[in-house]
Amino acid sequence: MTTNATNETQTTTVIAPEIVCGGCASSIKKALGNVEGVSEVDVDVASKKVTVKHGEMVSRGEIVAAMDDAGYSAA
Ligand SMILES: [Cu+2]
Q1: Average pLDDT over residues 34-51
Q2: Which residue of 16, 25, 34, 52 could cross-link 72, Cys pair, CB 3.0 to 4.6 Å?
Q3: Contact 32, 41 (CB under 8 A)
């Protein structure tokens, strides 16, 4: 497998007000972890902030959509 030099890791941060507990955090981690190209998901319950590390093929819209599917509206 060849490594594509243009496939850099990017970080996208979204806020989801519906995150209230660790259960929310793990559902979101699971949902975003299933998105192809996502390498790392960090959820901070206190600040309701989701930090996603991903390849450049993943758009912010895709992350928001995956969160939506999991039941959390993100902005
Ligand atoms: Cu919860």
Answers
A1: 98
A2: 16
A3: yes
Residue 58 has what DSSP assignment?
Answer: S
How far, in Å, from the CA of 47 to the mean position of ligand 1? Answer: 13
Where do we find the tokens 């206190």? 46
For the question of whether the overall pTM of this predicted structure is more than 0.85, the answer is yes
- Give the pLDDT band of residue 32 (cuts 50, 70, 90): very high
| Residue 2 alpha carbon to ligand 1 centre in Å | 40
How many angstroms separate the alpha carbon of residue 20 from the centre of ligand 1? 5
Per-residue confidence (pLDDT) for residue 8, from 0 to 100: 87
* Interval between CA 61 and ligand 1 midpoint (Å): 23
